[in-house]
Structures are given as C-alpha cells and as structure tokens.
C-alpha cells in the first residue's frame, strides 16, 4: 500500500466544474491546461470586447476606516 498520508485537496474546476484532486493538475485552480486557456481566453475576450470605462461593478470596494 502506498497511499499518500496526506489527504488530497479536492478542487472544482472554475471552467468546466469538474471535480478533481489538486495533485492531479499542473495548472491549479484549473483541472487542465485546456481549462486554464479557456478561462484566459474568456478573460482576454472581455478585455478586448469591452472598453474599460472604470466600471467598479465586480471590483471590491476599497474599505477605509
Ligand atoms: Zn476543467
């Protein structure tokens, strides 16, 4: 028996929603290079498709006391 003594970290791929173990991927948090590229492509497409207008929609608001 050569089971790892450490429990594998379970991840869910943000691109394809596939469940995988962190040990199985070289491209965390994605399950594969393919999914990493898909995510990157999506990101670049948004970047190119929509001119940046300073919309803070999904940017965390900086909090100051
Ligand atoms: Zn994936």
From TrEMBL:
Binding site for Zn(2+): 13, 16, 31, 35
Keywords, alphabetical: Metal-binding, Zinc
GO biological process: regulation of DNA-templated transcription
InterPro entries linked to this entry: DNA_gyrase_inhibitor_YacG, Znf_NHR/GATA
Any GO MF annotation of the entry: DNA topoisomerase type II (double strand cut, ATP-hydrolyzing) inhibitor activity
Cofactor stoichiometry and binding remark: Binds 1 zinc ion.
Cofactor: Zn(2+)
Keyword Metal-binding: yes
Signal sequence bounds: none
Primary role: Inhibits all the catalytic activities of DNA gyrase by preventing its interaction with DNA. Acts by binding directly to the C-terminal domain of GyrB, which probably disrupts DNA binding by the gyrase.
Similarity remark: Belongs to the DNA gyrase inhibitor YacG family.
Quaternary state and interactors: Interacts with GyrB.
Protein name per UniProt: DNA gyrase inhibitor YacG
Lineage of producing organism: Bacteria, Pseudomonadati, Planctomycetota, Planctomycetia, Pirellulales
């Amino acid at each position: 028996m050569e089971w790892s003594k450490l429990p594998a970290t379970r991840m869910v791929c943000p691109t394809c929603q596939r469940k995988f173990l962190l040990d199985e991927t070289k491209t965390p948090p994605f399950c594969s290079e393919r999914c990493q590229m898909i995510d990157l492509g999506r990101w670049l497409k948004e970047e190119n498709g929509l001119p940046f207008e300073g919309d803070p929609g999904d940017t965390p608001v900086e909090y100051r006391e």
